[in-house]
Amino acid sequence: MSSAWNVLLVEDDSTVARATEILFRLAGHRLTIAADPTAAYSLLARHRYDVILLDMNFVPGMSSGEEGLACIARIMADDADARVIVITAHSGIRIAVAAMQAGARDFLMKPWRKDDLFAKCAAVIAQTSEGGGSRRDAPRPTASTILGDSAGIEQVRALVRRVGPTAASVCVTGPSGSGRTLVANAIHAASADAAVKAVRIDLRDSEQWQALNAESGTVILRYPDQLAPVAQARLADRLLPGLRCIGIADDVATLSPALRRRLATVEIAIPPLAQRRGDAVILARHFALAAGEAYGRGPVRLSPAAEAMVIVSDWPDEVRGLAAAIERAALLSNDGMIDAAAIRPISSNTGPAPTPALSLNDAERLMIEAALKEHRYNVSRAASALGISRGTLYRRMAQHGL
Ligand SMILES: Nc1ncnc2c1ncn2[C@@H]1O[C@H](COP(=O)(O)OP(=O)(O)OP(=O)(O)O)[C@@H](O)[C@H]1O
């Protein structure tokens, strides 16, 4: 196997990022740049890296390292074996210590020297992970990476981190396609039992009930809420105490009290996309890049109008529907750019193009919020991304109370 490293650099200063990329390339390694943590999460959901170099500050004028620390926490929660080296300002020893406590393997002070950087990368790459072996040979950790930065999804991730490692039974609820199976997998991946595959049981299929005879291990139980009351009672009796149960249901209210006690010590409710429209854009960008890679088309992106369409549309089939629509649009795109006209939900009754579900005023506010967030509250950059002047953006922000 090649000894070239596969490195991810999370750095918002494009000049520094490009210079670092050249250094690694000249040394025979491959470095991928993520301009902010959100882009890094999408890359980490698609690829494994030998080492992650993480700048600690992304908001202009901020030097607390808070964003970097939150980023480490999220990376480590998704993959406890991730090898992170943080890059801090010269005076950032306190931040470096906090980063190491949060799971970073090492740190580097700015301005760093090339030899130090390479030596530290080599050292952390040489550390074998607990199970041993190369990270590139291991399966992607990412099958359970939950993307999105809405408060609702942050809450889901926090609950997964808290209850995943326990033996508590958890019921994941939300509309079909919203990511319930993904979250169930993430709960299992965070548990001590993660190395043993969880058994997935579709409770509507009586033949699959066989697997319920297990006395230990983890079972993911799909559709308990679609069982008749008698079958729900039978199921509650069948589940032995040593079995960790993760249920997937539309709503716990439809479970009988006995089954709810056994299956839903904790409920993790995934909000529908319509309640977290900012996540829809993050997911759409991720699905576009993933489709571009899968079909060998290089990076595929969405035009600003296409992103606006994603935000204002209601998505039948939730995230699954959004993923299918973006995959199709990515396939049909000519120049790596998806335009609004190509965005069309795919559903069982293939309907017309999406009807915007929001008023123009709401849509404008969401787009401004998304642009500000994307450009880390740099008003000039957000204004140029939106195609308006700084003055206009300030006026609109005031109108929307932003
Ligand atoms: N927050 C998320 N981040 C990344 N991918 C997501 C997210 N939510 C959903 N997905 C992806 O969307 C698709 C549908 O999600 P999933 O299969 O978990 O839905 P579900 O709610 O279990 O649906 P169903 O119960 O109908 O099968 C999957 O490919 C999943 O990986």
From TrEMBL:
Lineage top rank: taxon: Bacteria
InterPro entries documented for this protein: AAA_lid_NorR, CheY-like_superfamily, Homeodomain-like_sf, HTH_Fis, P-loop_NTPase, Sig_transdc_resp-reg_receiver, Sigma_54_int
Domain Response regulatory: 6-125
Keywords: ATP-binding, Nucleotide-binding, Phosphoprotein, Transcription, Transcription regulation, Two-component regulatory system
Keyword Transcription regulation included in the entry's annotation: yes
Signal peptide coordinates: none
Location of 4-aspartylphosphate modifications: 55
A Pfam family per the record: Response_reg
Coiled-coil ranges from the UniProt annotation: none
Keyword hit for Cytoplasm: no
Domain Sigma-54 factor interaction: 146-331
GO biological process, one term: regulation of DNA-templated transcription
Gene Ontology MF annotations: ATP binding; sequence-specific DNA binding
Protein name: Fis family transcriptional regulator
